[in-house]
Amino acid sequence: MNLPAPKDRGGRPRDPDVDRRIIEAALQVFGLSGWSGFSMEAVARTAGVGKASLYLRWSSKADLLTEAVASRFAPIAEIDNGDVRADLVEFADLLLDLFCGPHGLAARRMAVESHIIPDITERWNRVRESQIRASRAIVKRAVARGELSPHTPIGVLLDALHGAIVNHSIAAPEHIRSQTDARRRYARQLVDFLLSSLQEYTAERGVEESARL
To answer: Known InterPro entries for this protein (predicted)?
Structure first.
């Protein structure tokens, strides 16, 4: 994802490569050390630039981290391929890239600590809420199209999907979760498993409901 256009503060133009290195360093430091260990000094050292370069661009560490989050963690847009499996696989791919990709450690840390960081809470909540809206819309459309049973427990299904991905981002060996192809395979395996289990579950619920009639 491209960085937002730098703010024009006059003087010599900013170097986009330095901006990129600082943003990457900010996410690396935050991922490893959290908010309590996040400092302009640590970011400058990791980026290989002088601390003055940071303060020319951002007035505080909160401003720096806010821009880093905005530039690397985007809300999820609506997903509608007309097929529930394709939709859920695409959604799982996006979530796996977020939590297992190059900035995965920072994303996992953000999910835990965003509520204590000035100016970050609202921005991260937009990311999180977009995930919830997009995934619920996928399942509701599938029910409306008749692809999924009206007995589908939407909350349980999505808890299983989200929870499995977060657990995978923590438990899977780094050399596996860092590979894009491996993440894509896992997304398909996970979605196929959940849809198969869901089919069996909703069939049982349908039989139980029929027996009560």
So the answer is: Homeodomain-like_sf, HTH-type_TetR-like_transc_reg, HTH_TetR, Tet_transcr_reg_TetR-rel_C_sf, TetR_C
